[in-house]
Amino acid sequence: MHAKTHINRRTLLAGMGAAVTLPTLRTPAFATGAVLDVVATTGMIADTAREIGGDLVNVRALMGPGVDPHAYRQTRTDILAMARADAVLWNGLYLEAQMEDFLADLARKTPVTAVAEQIPEAELVAHDDYTDRFDPHVWMSPRLWIHAANAIADALGAAAPEHSETFTTNAQAYSIRLGELDDYSSHSLATVPSRSRVLITAHDAFNYFGRAYGFDVIGIQGISTESEAGVNRISTLVDMIVEREIGAVFVESSVSDRSVRALIEGAEAKGHSLKIGGELYSDAMGNPGTYEGTYIGMIDHNATTIARALGGAAPARGLNGRLMAEG
Ligand SMILES: [Zn+2]
Asked: Are 121 and 134 in contact (CB under 8 A)?
């Protein structure tokens, strides 16, 4: 894999001739090509590793758009890729619950790093269901994700010590962009009227978001409209939606449509208009090759969509003017 990249580069450079001024690429060591094969579990980790590794790394993400990391189990191809990799990066905190045993085993032969577990414990949110665990959805806070970026730089630097300075420099530059993303999210979301700062969405992925930006987060997954308890819960939620003048609920691919419809109908019956505020990225990014298919684009999309749907002000195309127009 390394050799192929190397030859391609050399051929390219030879073809360009010595007199041609080479364009400035992201990493100073561009002429040597990639030196590390890296495997990352989630798209968010893979994208961050590409930002930090630049042309020095080949990064493969195991989980694509729409893939649920809580349920994902490694395939035979994944196992081969991980066994051959110079570094394997995963989230940890029991996000990849079905891969835990395999990764523990792999760690005896291959350098394996749980990037979310490098975040200081004091900054983690307790898990909803397990008293001795933490919520794994740390990427929902760009500030916290800076810790993950640094952990990735350390892991790459350990695998290729001759380039560790480049990785550290790139991580610092990327952290500045994450800080800007956090500032943008913070300012945009602060324009939502405080009584409407409630995020009603499908599953429990948004606790770090809620803590970072002062939103109450309510998951509606699993509410049955058939049981009496479910009907009571819907009715309580509708009352709160009307009282706090919440204009929108949000969907993820895994959301129960029926619960959302029950909320919208319930609010309508009380003369309150409630709409679907858009689809949010929770555990996976958008399509590769799109802005939403990057970590920064994913968070920009979420913050911009939430702010605009709940009565706040944010530019339609987001922080970098690159978000897809709303459909
Ligand atoms: Zn999740």
From this structure: yes
Q: What is the distance in A from the centroid of ligand 1 to the CA of 284?
A: 9
Whole-prediction pTM: 0.86
Give me ligand 1 centre to Cα 66, in Å: 11
Could you tell me which residues are beta bridge partners of residue 277?
Answer: none
The DSSP annotation for 3-70 comes to: HHHHHHHHHHHHHH-TTSPPPP-SSTTGGG---EEEEESSHHHHHHHHHHHGGGEEEEESS-TT--TT
Q: How far is the CA of 116 from the centre of ligand 1 (A)?
A: 14
d(CA 242, CA 12): 63
- Mean pLDDT of residues grouped by 10 in the chain (327 residues)? 39 40 44 86 98 97 93 96 98 96 97 97 89 93 98 98 98 98 98 95 88 92 68 90 94 69 92 93 93 97 97 96 80
State in Å: Cα 70 to ligand 1 middle.
6
Residues sharing a CB contact under 8 Å with residue 12, sequence separation 6 or more, in sequence order: none
Contact call for residues 86 and 1 (beta carbons, < 8 A):
no
Q: Which domains does the chain have, with CATH numbers?
A: 2-184 (3.40.50.1980), 191-309 (3.40.50.1980)
Query: What's the CA-to-centroid distance between 206 and ligand 1, angstroms?
Result: 9
Give the contacts of 324 (CB within 8 A, at least 6 positions apart). 290, 291, 292
Question: Coil, strand or helix: which one is 205?
Answer: coil
